[in-house]
Amino acid sequence: MASGGLQLLGFVLAFLGWIGIIISTAMPQWKMASYAGDNIVTAQALYEGLWMSCAMQSTGQIQCKVYDSLLKLESSLQATRALMVAAILLGLVALFVAVTGMKCMKCMEDDQVKKMRMAVFGGVIFIIAGLAALVATSWYGNRVARAFYDPFTPVNTRFEFGSALFIGWAAASLAMLGGAFLCCSCPRRETSYPPTRGYPKNAPSTGKDYV
Q1: Rounded to whole angstroms, how far apart are CA atoms 173 and 16?
Q2: First to last CA, the chain
Q3: What residues form the membrane-spanning segments (predicted)?
Q4: DSSP character at residue 203
Q5: Which of 3, 7, 52, 16 is nearest to 167 (CA)?
Q6: Residue 6 near residue 181 (C-beta atoms within 8 A)
Q7: What is the DSSP string of 115-171?
Q8: Residue 112 in this model has a pLDDT that exceeds 90
Q9: CA 107, CA 100: separation in Å to the nearest integer?
Q10: How many other CB atoms are there within 10 angstroms of residue 83's CB atom?
Q11: Domains of the chain listed by start with CATH number
């Protein structure tokens, strides 16, 4: 029962992490710059994400523009996109594999060892998906930090970490933690001992001698 609860906890954490990776990928707030001009009415906040850039006016109006061409984007941004999409796809595969190996499901009930191995395999895929998302968000965050501290970057064009990065880091951690819990349900090998031999019982004596 304890291993079943740990398995269920790992699946829930990994699933929440996968949902967080999707949300982080879709959000435009990967990096943001907030500044006010000479006129407070024209104050605005700029956001940039993997797919679009947005500007929010002081009136609350938000205008977003999708990037025109994929080939015009920086190679680092393209790589970040690829890693996040790969993390989402890997998480989807891990979701189906882990569900098959869950103890509460009726699939593969005839072979419990294979069923538990499916749960472990799903956990491994979840860990890989979390690592891909963690590498993508950390790489992007490193680029933002380096550009922020670059003395040649104009003050009005400096960006800081956006909320999507923090969501991505938390989601990647949840996916890896949940995958690790799923891997803890790995079936243990049972040591097989040779069957003990019984000693023959002496036949009861009848008191008669045969020649």
Answers
A1: 10
A2: 66
A3: 7-27, 79-99, 119-141, 161-184
A4: P
A5: 16
A6: yes
A7: HHHHHHHHHHHHHHHHHHHHHHHHHHHHHHHHHHS-TTS-GGG--EE-HHHHHHHHH
A8: no
A9: 6
A10: 20
A11: 2-26+74-182 (1.20.140.150)
pLDDT at 190 over 50: no
Dig out the tokens for 211 from the structure: 């020649």
Residue in 142, 141, 23, 31 with CA at minimum distance from that of residue 84: 23
Please state, rounded to an integer, the average pLDDT across all residues of the chain. Answer: 81
Q: List 54's β-bridge partners, or say none.
A: 47, 64
Q: Quote the CA–CA distance of 187 and 113 in Å, as a whole number.
A: 6
145 by Cβ neighbours in 10 Å (0-12 / 13-18 / 19+) ranks as middle
SS3 content of the chain, % helix, strand, coil (to 5): 55, 10, 35
Which two tokens mark 158? 């400096």
Q: What is the pLDDT of residue 110?
A: 64
3-class state of residue 6 by DSSP: helix
Q: In this structure, are residues 177 and 134 in contact, taking their beta carbons and an 8 Å threshold? A: no
Residue with tokens 């938390």: 170
The model's pTM:
0.80
